[in-house]
Amino acid sequence: MTVIVRDLRLDVPDETAEYARVRQLTLPYMLFTPESVRHLITNSHPDAHFRSLVAVEDGEVIGVAGVSLAHESPEPGQGFLNVYVRPDRTGRGAGRLLVRAAEEHLDAVGATKLYAWVLDEPANRAFAERHGFTSGRPAHFLRLDLANGALPPLLESPPGVELRSAADFADDPRPLFELDAATVADEPGMVPVELTDYDAWLEQNWRHPLLDRELTTAAVVDGRPVAFTAAYTDGAGRYTTSMTGTLRSHRGRGLAKLAKIHSLHRARAAGVTEAFTGNDAGNDPMIAINRWLGYEICATEVRYVRTAG
């Protein structure tokens, strides 16, 4: 059969579901649903030049790729391409064709450096290296069994600290945006991020279909959120934290741990059975918090990089 690569088409019945299915099969530690795929495509910032590519064989989606510019980075020309092929459909050339299409697109929109996440497995690493990529920083996926595992007991809030859910900020989420922007700027990684566009944050983050505002939890001091954990759920018993952080001026007080343990207890009470999170391998403070919560490393991926062209 011939494999063709094209853009994902929202007008093709079930194609977003097939895209999400490939992502779940290849990276089950992240949450993807047809709704989140559609949201990603329709709400990506124009400066990202985002494309969702699919590799199709005999009418079946067997591979996918997300391709974009890191438009929120202060360093221009940083391009992302992340390729995933169904484990039972490898060896058909889908990955190679997806990489080629992604590289051509990023070259056309001015990328000078390309980054790709690669699972830390021999075949995946070899594939990236055959395409000229070299390994960079590793990161871990962590899993917590909420159905059978034990959570630490709830922590008491320190004096002057109040816990609130994101739902409490529904009328004005800007304070959460400002907290997100301040903490993501400190997050370790190879591509720095600066969040400056509040309207884009509203569309892409605040209105994300998987964002669970009741479980997203912030520690508030003098009416201002100073630490938080952002929770996503898929409606099928799975939960993930996409970001956890604390303002520099309030670190060392255990506020991120406080927000996260309360979010997890409420998640379990709401019927969540499986929780995931991710950490840069050098983020020792956050890894320590997640270990205390009971998370265990379930997979590692490595960010690969090469010069464009």
Task: Name a few traits of the molecule.
2 domains; 29% helix; Aminopeptidase; globular; 309 residues; alpha+beta; 12-stranded mixed β-sheet
Nearest-angstrom radius of gyration?
20 Å
Q: Give the low-confidence spans.
A: none
SSE arrangement, N to C: EHHEEEHEHEEHHEEEHEHE
Mean pLDDT: 96
Separation of the first and last Cα atoms = 30 Å
> Main sheet, how many strands, which sense, barrel?
12 strands, mixed
* Mass-distribution shape: globular
Total count of helical runs of at least 4 residues: 8
Query: So what's the CATH class of the largest domain?
Result: Alpha Beta
Query: Which structural class fits the helix and strand makeup?
Result: alpha+beta
**Beta-strand content bin:** 25-35%
Overall strand count: 12
- Determine the CATH superfamily of the largest domain: Gcn5-related N-acetyltransferase (GNAT)
Write out the strand line-up for the largest beta sheet, numbering strands in chain order.
1-2-3-4-5-12-6-11-10-9-8-7
Total domains: 2
What is the CATH architecture annotation of the largest domain? 3-Layer(aba) Sandwich
The helical percent reads 25-40%
Structural write-up:
This protein is an alpha+beta fold and 309 residues long. It folds into 2 domains: 3-111, Aminopeptidase (3-Layer(aba) Sandwich); 144-299, 3-Layer(aba) Sandwich (Aminopeptidase). It is 29% helix and 31% strand. The protein has helices at 15-26, 34-43, 94-108, 122-130, 174-184, 198-206, 255-269, 284-293; strands at residues 3-7, 51-57, 60-69, 78-85, 113-119, 134-145, 161-165, 217-221, 224-233, 238-246, 274-280, 296-307. It has a 12-stranded mixed β-sheet with strand order 1-2-3-4-5-12-6-11-10-9-8-7, with helices on both faces. A hairpin with a 2-residue loop joins strand 2 (51-57) and strand 3 (60-69). Helix 1 packs across helix 2. It is globular, with a radius of gyration of 20 Å. The mean pLDDT is 96.
